[in-house]
Specification:
By secondary structure, the protein is of the alpha/beta class. It is built from 11 helices and 14 strands. The strands form 3 sheets. A 10-stranded mixed sheet has the order 3-4-5-6-9-10-11-12-13-14, covered by helices on one side. A two-stranded parallel sheet has the order 1-2. The protein has a two-stranded antiparallel ribbon with strand order 7-8. The relative contact order is 0.10.
Amino acid sequence: MKSIFNMQALEEFRKLHKLQPFRIKQILLEIFKNSVIDFNEMSNLPKELRTELTQEFEIVPLKIDKIIETDDTTKFSLLTANWEIVESVIMYHQHDWSWETRLNRLTLCVSTQVWCPVWCSFCVTWKLWFKRNLSYEEIIWQLILANNHIQKKLGKKPDNTWRQIRNVVFMWMWEPLLNYENTKKSIEKMLDQWWFSLSKRHITISTSWIIPWIQKLMDDGIEVGLAVSLHAPNQELRQSLMPIANKYKLDDLMDILKKYIRITDNRIFYEYIMINWITDSPNLAQELVKLLRWQNCHVNLIPYNQNPAIDYKESSERNIMKFKDILERGWLTVTKRQSLGREWKWACWQLGYEKLETI
């Protein structure tokens, strides 16, 4: 079976069957704009054409293993052709109006790898060992599946248009910059008007700071958002938490990010983990102010999502707010981030725990 993502094969199919070019646009519109995942559901195509497409092309590179939902998240567990597990999560962000709570936006966290090659001490995902990079088709499919699910779950908006994912974050299984070419190609498709037409302001790459590939982002003009997993304001603590820091030093990271801000005019988002007695002291907050002062940046303080497989504890609310206050008095913009899905072990640094339990 040929992949529907293969534009050359699709064009050859068009010529062989003497189809008008608009038919290809119809097919692409149905899949990438309307999130239809079955040729037989494309009612604007002749029945014979739907049958021929079903016989020759495959839309789905990943099979659904299971879908688990809470009030604010949907987690997809997906199987590759080799029976490897890939996961992605939709987050439903609510906004409190004066008279009611409404769904404000939808964010999808996508995976770019099967498990993780970055051995962060606070994260369970790497314990399952890295398997391989995902293809760009496998990355894109996560977005199509999410939009298809949202349409069935939530229906249309009051203006009669379909609800869709607005924000995509490359962060789930992880590290996206170590799968650079497929990450880049999937972003290009997400921005393409014939595919998803997302805004570059609504796509974010979350990285543990692979410096050469941050430079490559600039060289290739990929000006999407950048979220850097900082987690410590000094080299010693950083490398004790994230071994990759032994290779990519903090000073070098700051240099490349200042360049990134200058060239792209984008704000950098720094992710900072709040682990009790390890990353949450007032002295570390002062160090963070000194490190980031005068940068065009935003700091996300993320309470550690505890996991039975790792002996770290979440910072107390008191320590988090004290840490936040020091940063704000140092003129940094700061948000204490809400963790969605943590009770089900699919928040940041928890992904894969259910799989680990079975090993």
